[in-house]
Amino acid sequence: MPLITVEGEEPFEAEAGKKLVLALEDAGIDILHRCGGQSRCTTCRIEVISGAVPAMQDDEKEALEDPEWIAKYRLSCQIRVENDLTIKIIKRSAAEGIAPGPRPED
Ligand code: FES
């Protein structure tokens, strides 16, 4: 199983093919997500430090909008884990004082 390393957290193994946002949440890692994984809110964005991720699709590009954000971030609700990854979480529920939205579909 792919090994996910998150800055500031213990590494954990994730089921291959699982959405990254769900893998993080199910590992007990705080990540904010607000739109149910619909590629709209961008609160679930992460920075990929190392590891390959699938190419960005148009709806993710439209959501991130700013070319600097497109170059720097990915939406964790749009990535299915396929291999080892090292990432940085940008927004956490506790730090933002905002409860997560509905759980994205599997
Ligand atoms: S863009 Fe809203 S949860 Fe990912």
Short synopsis of the structure:
The chain is about 25% helix and about 20% strand.
Structure write-up:
Helices cover 23% and strands 18% of the residues. It has one domain: Ubiquitin-like (UB roll), CATH 3.10.20. The model has no long low-confidence stretch (mean pLDDT 97). It has helices at 20-26, 58-64, 67-72, 93-96; strands spanning 3-6, 12-13, 45-50, 74-75, 85-89. The protein has 106 residues and is an alpha+beta fold. The two termini are 17 Å apart. Bound molecules: FE2/S2 (inorganic) cluster (FES). The site of FE2/S2 (inorganic) cluster (FES) has 15 residues, from loops.
The name CATH uses for the topology is Ubiquitin-like (UB roll)
Approximate strand percentage: 15-25%
* Residues in helices, as a percent range: 10-25%
> CATH homologous superfamily, by name?
Beta-grasp domain
As residue ranges, the low-confidence spans are none
Structure characteristics:
106 residues; Ubiquitin-like (UB roll); 5 strands; 18% strand; binds FE2/S2 (inorganic) cluster
Summarize the helices and strands and which ones pair or pack:
Layout lengths: L2 E4 L5 E2 L6 H7 L18 E6 L7 H7 L2 H6 L1 E2 L9 E5 L3 H4 L10
Parallel strand pairs: 1-5
Antiparallel strand pairs: 1-2, 3-4, 3-5
This protein binds FE2/S2 (inorganic) cluster (FES).
The site of FE2/S2 (inorganic) cluster has 15 residues, from loops.
